[in-house]
Structures are given as C-alpha cells and as structure tokens.
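step=encode ok
step=design start
structure_in=
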C-alpha cells in the first residue's frame, strides 16, 4: 500500500520540526523530531515498511524487542496521520 501526503496539507521544515497546516480543516501542528523523521521518510519513499525499517536500524540496531516496538509505533503514527487526512493511502 502506497502513502502520500494529502494535497490538502501545506508543510515545511522548521528548526522545531515539520510544521503542518491542513487547508480543509484549519488544523495546524508541529511534529516533534521523531514525527518529522517519519513524515520526511514517507514523503520520500511513499511506503510504511521502509520507514519502519529505517527507523528501526537507526534507533534499535539489532535489539529485536525494540525493533518490534518501533515498527508498531511507526504504523500507529502513520495510521493516525491517515485518519486525520494528512496522509492518503492507495493500493498502487
């Protein structure tokens, strides 16, 4: 399943993270460092699994328990972004 940033979202990198504005809902937020990393990886790869793998390598090394936790957290974050209309999923 592919992911992409919704066309309704205007975003930019700032010194504090990624700032997002959802033009349809008026919601504004700034992602923390980890959320910003996930956002940028999705913007570049368009797939959830490579994002989870990249963060697992960066933060967990070979610790299997930590890898599982990171994968779950990344998928939960992405799911929340989809529910809020910030990311869109497609079957292609």
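sequence_out=
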């Amino acid at each position: 399943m592919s992911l992409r940033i919704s066309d309704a979202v205007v975003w930019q990198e700032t010194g504090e993270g990624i700032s997002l504005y959802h033009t349809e809902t008026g919601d504004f937020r700034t992602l923390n460092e980890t959320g910003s990393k996930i956002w940028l990886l999705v913007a570049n790869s368009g797939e959830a699994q490579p994002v989870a793998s990249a963060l697992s390598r960066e933060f967990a090394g070979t610790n299997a328990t930590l890898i599982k936790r990171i994968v779950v957290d990344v998928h939960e974050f992405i799911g929340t972004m989809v529910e809020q209309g910030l990311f869109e999923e497609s079957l292609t």
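step=design ok
step=annotate ok -> DSSP finds three helices and five strands in the chain.
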